[in-house]
Amino acid sequence: MTNCGGVRKTARIMEVSHQAIINRLGRLARQAIALQADILQDYVPCEDLVTDGFESFVSDQFQPNNIHILAGKSSQFFITFDYAHLRRKGKMTELQKAERDQRERHYIRKRISISQSFLQIVDLVEQYAQKRRLTCLYSDEKLEYQRLVMGSDVLQSLKSEGRFEHVRIFFPFGAHHRQSTFFCQLSGQAI
User: Fold this and answer.
1) Quick one: pLDDT band at residue 42, thresholds 50, 70, 90?
2) How far apart are CA 157 and CA 138, in angstroms?
3) pLDDT higher than 90, residue 56
4) CA separation, residue 53 to residues 78, 115, 131, 164, 179 (Å)
């Protein structure tokens, strides 16, 4: 799995069924989650933090979501994520609108906003920042991020004490250049 081989290719190489590989991947994933949960019980990051979010789909275009992540800036250690189920947007036919409404009635129990999702990240940053001498949080210029960080009494108090800083990174170009610029800035490489 280290050479970007898919499940079926790995199964052919190992001469087992693809279901056996899927089974082992599932077991390995559960062990990794358990290990990370154990590590995070007493974890206090000793590096700056980076947060961002991205939109994706659960299974099809009727189930969009937004996932925020929090990671260590240098180690890229994945600390946490939060999930927000979004309402499908964009142009739709009447049939697609009916399909969306039907799915929302039957499948979506609780919808949280992107702001509510990011607030979970902010709460964790507050906990870490209170235990450290200085915490720096890097994010892009999304207004919701700035509003929620500025709205945190804990982080603003730590900021006034010189113990917290929120660095917002501006990306003047398209998404591909923005992503490569962001990672170059985080790793300290020249652009």
Assistant:
1) confident
2) 18
3) no
4) 13, 11, 25, 21, 12
Q: Backbone phi, then psi, for 47, in 5-degree steps?
A: -150, 170
The model's pTM is 0.71
Q: What is the pLDDT of residues 95-105, one digit of tens each?
A: 988 888 887 77
Angle of CA points 115, 186, 124, to nearest 5°: 35
Parallel/antiparallel/unpaired status of strands 135-140 and 49-57 = parallel
Q: Could you count the other beta carbons within 10 Å of the beta carbon of residue 103?
A: 14
- What is the rounded CA–CA span in Å between residue 77 and residue 45? 9
125: amino acid identity, one letter: V
Q: Is 135 helix (H, G, I), strand (E, B) or coil?
A: strand
What is the DSSP code string of 18-83? Answer: HHHHHHHHHHHHHHHHHHHHHHHTT---SS-EEEEEEEEESSSTTSEEEEEEEEETTT--EEEEEE
Residue 55 CA to residue 44 CA, distance in Å, equals 28
